[in-house]
Amino acid sequence: MAELVFFSGTMDCGKSTLALQMDHNHRARGRGGVRFSRNDRAGESRISSRLGLETDAVEVADGTDFWEEVMRRRTQGQRVDYLICDEAQFYSPEQVEQLAKVVDEIDVDVFAFGITADFRTRLFPGSQRLIELADRVQVLQVEALCWCGRRATHNARTVDGVMVTEGAQVVVGDVEMAMDTVASAGSGHVSLVGYETLCRRHYMRRVTAHGANLMAEQDQLLPFEVDACLWRGAGGTVTGE
Fold first, then answer.
1. Which of 42, 80, 150, 184 could make an S-S bridge to 199, C-beta 3.0–4.6 Å?
2. 54 is catalytic
3. What pTM was computed for the model?
4. Of 195 and 96, which is predicted with more confidence?
């Protein structure tokens, strides 16, 4: 029987690598499939891995209907046995329901890959619906690591190295610190917006790799009891002055 399977994890845990590997394995056994993605780091209509693997894909837009996508291909004589759906956190709840319908009504396997929660620890709407509807939710076993060496469990967004917990849910970037223009009353200021993975302890204390490195350069002990974003070296405002 076909299944809807959601492979989830933090950034940098190998989701896209696994998606490409599964696509290869199924094609090698003579199965026909379609690869989908949205907002991939490599650009539109691509699935890419940080290991350097990359291939073409169908870009998912707001108006994409997965039921229609599959039925159109089958009507044209194309074999569709499975779907690879990367960056599934960006899909709408309605699109996830379409994927479930594809599994239940026409026996097509759907393998979805995505981040569960955003930089605010809030579930992405697409991920939430996948958790609610999937036959299986599989947390990837390749552990991303926090800068301290512990297992990373949370995705953090940084602006100029300082962790932020407010802003738009979707701002496409990378752990390599993508450039993104920050609107600031027409000042034209451009800030470095990036992402990194943190363990829960350092996410809750807002201690990023940037802040930890700055404090290490000052030969100071890491102040676990304070918010690192409020330390002057991390670019914040020191209280009590």
1. 150
2. no
3. 0.69
4. 96
